[in-house]
Every structure is written in structure tokens, then in C-alpha cells.
Amino acid sequence: MLAVFKASVAEGPAELVSPHRQADVRKNGIDLINSFLSANSGAVCVNFGDVGAMAYIPKHQSLLVPRAFVAMDDIFCLFEGTLDNIMALRQQYGLNKSANEVTIVIEAYRTLRDRGPYPADQVVRDLSGKFAFLLFDFKSQTLFTAADADGSVPFFWGTAADGCLVLSDEVRSVKDGCGKSFAPFPRGCFFSTSGGLQSFEHPRNKLMPLPHVDSEGHMCGANFKVDELSKKGSPIPRVGSEANWANTF
Q1: Which DSSP category does 36 fall into?
Q2: pLDDT classification of 248: cutoffs 50, 70, 90
Q3: What is the mean pLDDT of residues 211-223?
Q4: Domains of the chain: residue spans and CATH
Q5: Are the C-beta atoms of residues 47 and 2 closer than 8 Å to each other?
Q6: Is 155 exposed, middle or buried (0-12, 13-18, 19+ CB in 10 A)?
Q7: Edge-to-edge strand ranges of the sheet holding 165-168
Q8: What's the pLDDT score for residue 26?
Q9: Does residue 146 contact residue 186 with C-beta atoms inside 8 Å?
């Protein structure tokens, strides 16, 4: 899968951009999508106008890490992997027995968006299993994406030449578009348009960028690790039902 979003929708951390500009050959976001579609026969692309696009190949997927795509009420979600606690999540969100991983993630997001009772980190932490997902809410122009705590599903992100945020399960696709300005998506973390990058395992801790050097000795986009010594304020606005929960993620 491959997704590209303009910085107006999702601006990645500044540390994703390689400091070695002379070795950093990058493409624009739209060119990367076009290259992906040209190279992969049967690929499907969902275009979001001038703000971004998602593309994936329905037929080519792992049996151990299945991929699913659902569009519902202008919410578009690509999910890779499996959840171990589907039955509990169905009950938690009041879903029927036909609800699968991707529909559960969409319902979890809608719970957050519509002033649900839980903070974003707890909602993602409730997802037990091996997964990485991309969700885009077209109406609110919101990106929401996450990867499990073990990094079970390959997931990478980077910054294209025009500042677009690029996300993919294939490192080659990200390298082709972002040059050295890429890194593995941090394990146990989620990223959102309004909240940026956060750890759902350790929501009270800040994330610290660490240098990432490739096999050629070039500095790439930074990796991020939980800073155990650095605490931040509680992301949970415990001020009653009138709080704007949308700002928590």
C-alpha cells in the first residue's frame, strides 16, 4: 500500500528530512503515486483531489498479513494485519458479528471524532494484534495512522520533494519517493493531523528523534524512541462532556 498527503493535511516531523541534501534525491508526491500505478498492474487508487491519494494492490497480499480496504461515510481506511480481540472490540463498539478489523478501526475513529469517552492513545492501545493502518477522513481532512507495538507489519514513512507525507508497507516505494528522507514508522505509535506523532504505549512520555544511518553512511530520516525521562502533560481533557475531544488526536 502507498499513501501520499500534502503537508496541509499531514505534516510529518521535521526530523524525517535527511540533513544530507546532496545525497537526497526525492520525487513529488503525485509522481510517486503515478510511478506506483504504472509499476503495478491491477493497482487501485483512491484520489482525494489536491490533498492526497491512497493506492494498493488487491491481489498481492500475504496470507499471514492480510490487507483490507473500506470506504464508509467519507472515511477511507487501509488495514494490514489481524486483531486478536475482535470479539471484545465488536462488543465494545456495539458492532455485529460481520465487523472485521478495518470496520472496527473506522468505528474506533468515529468514536474519537464524535466525542467518545476515551483518549486516542487508549483506543489504539485496545487494538491487540499485528497491524498497521491508514485512515483518512475526507470531510475533516484528517489523517490517522498507527502501527502495533512490535512492528509486526512493515511500515515506513518519509517526506517527498514537495513536502508530502508518504506512507507505505514497502520500503522501496518510500525510498523511491523520499530518497534518504524516510524511516521506519515508530513502533507503538500513532500519527494524526492535529496531534502529530504520539506513543500509545507511553502517552505521558515525549518521543525523541535518533539518528538513522543507512548502509552507505548517509543520514536518513530520524527514528523515534520514547524518552523515558521526559514527561508531558496529560492528553486527556478531563473537563466534562462539553470538551472538544477532536483535539486529543
Answers
A1: H
A2: very low
A3: 83
A4: 2-248 (3.60.20.10)
A5: no
A6: buried
A7: 44-47, 52-56, 2-5, 165-168, 156-159, 182-184
A8: 87
A9: no
